[in-house]
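Why do we care about 3D structure at all? Because function follows from shape, and shape follows, mostly, from sequence. That is the central idea of this module. The next example makes it concrete: a single protein chain, its amino acid sequence, and then its structure expressed as tokens.
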Amino acid sequence: MKTFAVVMAVVLAALGLGPAPAGATDVLRPTVLAPNPFAMTPPPMPLERRPGAQVPVKPPHVHPRLPPLVTYPCCAVGYWAYQWVPTAYTTHVWLPGYVTAEGILVGGGYYPQVLIGGYYQRVWVNGY
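And the structure:
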């Protein structure tokens, strides 16, 4: 393979098709390429990091201590507290099939399931 490359270099040099050394008469011209219609265009706006979405903070699941009660003539008497608000969610759960004691095959399927949850809601408690 190396001999073939050497032979080809000699043949090209003899024919004058190989790379010739740059002389004083040779002028180097920059290559101008035609515009590529499939080239990517720049984005319409600069790509910057956007601030992340604010995640709501849940209050603690323990009953917080009451803040100190401060009374001024201009302000309402009371305090903020948290009240549990129960919430029920319905979802569907896959139950596999089974055979009853009588030998009847009951097919599996999705059946509704109720999940109990909730959240704490901030409420104002009037003072004494």
